[in-house]
Amino acid sequence: MSDVIDIDAIGEGQVAVMDQLPSGEIPAESPLHHLDSTVPTFTSKPAGVRLWEEALKGHLVLRGNAEDPTFQRGVEAALGMALPERLRSVQQGPLSLRWIAPDEWLLVCPGDQAAALEIRLRRHLSGHFAVVNVSGGQTLIHLAGPDAAMVLKKSCPYDLHEHNFPIGKVVTTVLAKTQATLCKIAADQWELVVRRSFADYAWRWLVDASAEYGLIGDTPATAAQRRASTGRHPVSSET
Amino acid sequence: MFYIHCPYCCEYREEEEFHAKGQAHIARPADPDQCSDEEWGTYLYFRKNPRGLHHEIWVHAIGCRKFFNVTRDTQTYEIKETYKMGEQPKVTSVSDTLETEEAAQ
Lengths: 239, 105
Fold this sequence. Notes:
heterodimer; A: 11 strands; B: 19% helix; EC 1.5.3.1 (chain B); sarcosine oxidase activity (chain B)
């Protein structure tokens, strides 16, 4: 568990990279592990909002000079996708890369790939850059359904109209009294990245704000599909 | 509440996302060891408090987390311009010009 990986393998500018995934004897817990019961798994009326956590994903913060062609090429070689433009995200298989600031991006990957990707990035990048594993510091919440936009409109001051917020756009903004990185991944589906210490608050806020539209956890079919693809149990659809 | 243009996000964002961080364009003395106490004290503690145009540092705290400059009217609260760190303001007042001339002499 949490072994320091062979740093010789990293090469130049050696940094001790740690696989932060706990081994089997200590179960990994998402910041929302205790909130199973807050989202119903069944509603009698049509659900306007679906809410679930994509728990225990790998989150890597990548920093560097976006203007530097060497950095751009390194990222593309390591991830198979180019850096996204301002306020955009790009997706490549299970990986997604979102713009956070002009010199900062967030890479979200399957939880067990974070360490490997960190090493990969370090191999391909040189000079002034940073790769930091922040998987334990934040989590990913999915908000979907025909009324998902209504919930967000109540919760944040940003203009969510489709002209201003097309699919693929990423915006870090105020959510309730905390902050979240909103990413629109489909016409009626958003991914929210929230800080670990605020995850409980944000989750409960979203549950409360969704109540009037009819709230349900992820549908059993998609939950099962996701379980199969990640090998992990999503929190909200546990029964 | 008003919208502030973040020069790094290139978008207008809600005021709630920003924090003000005080006077902008304060130059640190090139050689602190050669400073008089008065020069160092002025650099460290003394700030303008104009009625009218003021150049300020703001931070897009809940957003890209970048610091940038704002030219703001302290009387009307009107934001005249926002510009990146390291850039110079386009909107200046008579007192700004006078100070620049004084500094040059």
